[in-house]
Every structure is written in structure tokens, then in C-alpha cells.
Design goal:
Radius of gyration: 23 Å
Distance between the termini: 78 Å
Structural class: mainly alpha
Strand content: under 5%
Length: about 50
């Protein structure tokens, strides 16, 4: 290969693996923080405010 061919090949972005290709346990770990934050937000929204 010439240096021009190699440099052109390196400039193309590599395709990242899809999230759907991840194992199930890794997908759960990736989504868990967002689910936990949403759960806490709902719990906080349902807390009754003490009257003054």
C-alpha cells in the first residue's frame, strides 16, 4: 500500500458497534442510572409539602 492509501483509509471513521449488539446485562447497566433518576424524580414529586 502507498502512504496515500493508508492515510485515506485512516481518515474514514470506524463504525461503532450498535447498542443492540451489547449483551443484555450491559444494556441494563447502561440504562440503570437514567431509570434510577427518573424513579427518584417521581418519588420526589409525590412528596407532600408540609403546610406552614
Amino acid at each position: 500500500m502507498t502512504s496515500q492509501t493508508v492515510s485515506a483509509h485512516r481518515s474514514t471513521p470506524s463504525r461503532a458497534a450498535s447498542v443492540l449488539a451489547w449483551p443484555a446485562w450491559l444494556r441494563v447497566l447502561a440504562v440503570l442510572p437514567a431509570v434510577a433518576l427518573l424513579w427518584l424524580a417521581v418519588a420526589w414529586a409525590q412528596v407532600e409539602v408540609a403546610p406552614w
